[in-house]
Amino acid sequence: SNSTNEAFNSTIAVLLDTGNLVVRHKSNSSHVVWQSFDDMTDTWLPAPGMFTVEMDPNGSKQYIILWNSSMVYWDTGNWTGSSFPNMPELSRANTYPNTPYTYQFVDNDQETYFTYNVTDDRILSRHVIGVSGQTQSSVWVEAAQAWVVYFSQPKANCDVYGFCGAYSKCSGSALSSSCSCLKGFSERDPNSWNLGDPTAGCRRNVQLQCGSKGLEKEKQDRFYTINSVKLPDKAYTSIEGTSNQNCQSACLNNCSCTAYSYNGTCSLWYAELLNLQDTIDGSLDNIHIRVAASELPDSRTKKRWIAGVAVGGVATLGCAVIALYFLLRRRRRINSMNLGKGSLISFKYNDLQFLTKNFSEILGVGAFGSVFKGVLPDATIMAVKKLEGLRQGEKQFRAEVSTIGTIQHVNLIQLLGFCSEGTKRLLVYEYMPNGSLDHHLFRSSTAPLSWSTRYQIATGVARGLTYLHEECRDCIIHCDIKPENILLGESLVPKVADFGLAKLLGRDFSRVLTSMRGTIGYLAPEWISGEAITTKADVFSYGMMLFEIISGKRNNMHTGTSTYTFFPMWVVRKLVEGDVQTLIDSELVTDVDLRELERVCMVACWCVQDSESSRPTMGEIVQILEGLVRVEMPPVPRYLQVLAEGVKPSEVSNLS
Ligand SMILES: *[C@@H]1O[C@H](CO)[C@@H](O)[C@H](O)[C@H]1NC(C)=O
Ligand SMILES: *[C@@H]1O[C@H](CO)[C@@H](O)[C@H](O)[C@H]1NC(C)=O
Ligand SMILES: *[C@@H]1O[C@H](CO)[C@@H](O)[C@H](O)[C@H]1NC(C)=O
Ligand SMILES: *[C@@H]1O[C@H](CO)[C@@H](O)[C@H](O)[C@H]1NC(C)=O
C-alpha cells in the first residue's frame, strides 16, 4: 500500500503454493514489496457470507462457527495440545497417507493462532467454509481430476444452523442430505437453490387469512401435521395444562403464529421456522404447520377422489383413473416381462410421479440423488432413485442401464426399470425392507447384529462383489463400497446397491468421491496417488468396511479413555498378539465364533495392504471366508501406520 506508482508498474503478484500472496519486483524475486503472510487475519479466507469461522472471542482455545454473526452452531472444543476434540480427523491419527501434516496452536499475550502445514508439497489441499456452512478440507485427486472432501464439520448438513432456510426441512444421513420446502411453500430463490445454496429457504404460496373470528370455517387457515421431526429452534411460547384443540386455537387466533406442537405441553412458534429436521431414528415429536385453507384439499374433495378410484371401471373419472388404467396395463406388461428375465420396464415420468405420490416419501439420499418409496398397483414396493448430475445422452443412458439390468445375483440389488424423459433420469429398484447396513451397525436404536449375521453379511457382500468383478461380461468396479451402500433384505441377506453408477457417470468420479466425505477411511491410497483404479480399490474399501462390521462402530469414531484409537491399527496389533477376542464389539455377547472372527480380521488386514497386488481378489476372499483356503499372517500395511496415532517406528517393527 505504501508503494509508489513506479514500484507498482514494475511489480507482479504471485500466489504461491503455500497460499501466500506475494507482491514482488518483476526482475528480482527476492525483493518482496508485500505478502499476505505478513498480514494474517483470523479466518482462513475472509469473504462475506452467512457462515463464519473465528477464534472464540471469549478467549478459550477453540474455533467456533457462526451463523449470521450471531448464532454459534459448532465449535472445535478446546485445544488439547495435539488436536481439537471435535475434529479428530485433523489430528495426526487420521490423515491421508503420505501427507504429513503438522499442527500448532500458538497462544501467548501477543497473539493466538492455529497453524496447519502440509509438508509434502506434492499434495494440494485446501480448507474452506462455503454456502454449505460446513468447514471442509479437500485434497486434489489426480485420478478423478477433482477436489475430494476428506473432512467436514459439522458432519451433517442438517446440523448447520439455518442450512435449509425458512420453512424447509432437512433430511438424509450424515453423509448426504437434502432440503425440501414444506407443503404449501416454494423455494424463495430457485436459482441459488439449484446451485446448491438453499439458505434463502422457502416462502408461502398463499398468504395466511389470519384470524378466525367472523370467517367461515372453510376459509380459516388450516394445519397439517409432520410426524417424526426434530422441532425448529425456539418455541416462543409454551402453555401448560391445555388441550390439543386449545393449542391449535391459540395458534389460529394469533396472526403471527406459524406452527404448534402438542405433547401435553403446547408449544407455539411465532416466526419463520428454521432447522426442521427429519429424524430417521423415530422421534415422536410432531409439528402442525399453519397454511392457508386453499393449500389443503377439503376433506370432501378427497373422499370424492377415493370413491372415484374405487369404481375405476367407469370411463369418465378423470386423471387418476386414467393413470390407474395405464398402470394396470403396465402391470400386465410387468408380468409378461418377468417371463423373459432381465428385461427392464421403461417407466413414464408421470407414472413414477403417481406411484411415489409425487416423490413424497424419501428413503434416503445418496451420492447420485435421492431415493423415494413407490408402490405398484399390485402392492409391490419399489425404490425410485432420481439421478442428479448426469450428463449422458439418452442412448448411452439406455445402453448402460440395460447392462446393469442384466446383472442378477442374490447379493446385488435388482434393477427393475428406469425412466429417461427429457433431462430426467430415474432408476427403479427392488425395495429392501431392512434398510442399509450403517443403520444396523451404528444406530443405537436398532438391536445389535449377531455375530453370525455379521459373518453372513461379510460373506454375502464378498459374493456380490465377486460377481461384479469377475463374472459379469464387463467387469464392474463399484468405487463406493461402504455400509450405506449395503442394503439388507429378508433375513438380513445383504445386497450391494449402486453398482454400475460410477460408470454411468462416465469419468465423473468426483460425485462418488465426494460422497465419502467425512469418512475418509474407505478410499484406497491409489485414489490419492493418481494410479489407475482397479477392482482392488473395491477390495480396499471392503476391508475398511469389514473393520466396521467387526466393531460395530465407524473406524474414525473410536474414542478410548484418553486418546483416540484408530480401530484398524488396533486390530492388526491384536491379531499379531493372538488376542482377537478383545476385538469384538462389546455389545456382542456369547455367539462369537473365534475362528470366524480371526478369519475376518485376517481378510480385512490383507484387503488394506498398500499395494494392489498384495490384496486378495474378491473371489479369493469368498474362499477364505468359507474356510476353503487358509491365510498367512498379513504384514502391517504402511498406510495404516500413517493413519494410526502414536505408533512409533520401533513398535511397528515389532509388529511385523
Ligand atoms: C506504467 O506503465 C504504463 C504502461 O506500461 C505506462 O503507460 C505508465 O506511464 C507507467 N506509469 C509509471 C508511473 O511509470
Ligand atoms: C534483490 O532484492 C534483494 C532484497 O531487496 C536485494 O538484497 C538484492 O540485492 C536484489 N538483487 C538484485 C540483483 O538487485
Ligand atoms: C442477520 O442479522 C442481521 C443483523 O442482526 C439481521 O438484520 C438479519 O435479519 C439477520 N438475517 C437473517 C436471515 O436472520
Ligand atoms: C414436550 O415438548 C416440550 C417442548 O419441546 C419439551 O420440553 C417436553 O419435554 C416435552 N414433553 C414430553 C412429555 O415429551
Describe the SSE topology.
Elements: H1 5-9, E1 11-15, E2 21-25, E3 32-35, E4 51-55, E5 63-67, E6 71-75, E7 101-107, E8 112-118, E9 125-129, E10 135-141, E11 146-153, E12 168-172, E13 177-181, E14 185-187, H2 190-194, E15 202-204, E16 222-226, E17 229-230, E18 237-239, H3 244-252, E19 259-262, E20 266-269, E21 276-278, E22 287-291, H4 299-310, H5 319-339, E23 345-346, H6 349-355, E24 362-366, E25 369-375, E26 381-386, H7 394-405, E27 415-421, E28 424-430, H8 437-442, H9 451-471, E29 486-488, E30 494-496, H10 501-504, H11 510-514, H12 525-529, H13 535-551, H14 567-577, H15 594-607, H16 618-625, H17 638-643, H18 649-655
Describe this structure in words.
The chain is of the alpha+beta class and 656 residues long. The protein has 18 helices and 30 strands. Strand 19 (259-262) and strand 20 form a beta hairpin. It binds 2-acetamido-2-deoxy-beta-D-glucopyranose (4 copies). Residues 5-6, 9 line the site of one 2-acetamido-2-deoxy-beta-D-glucopyranose.
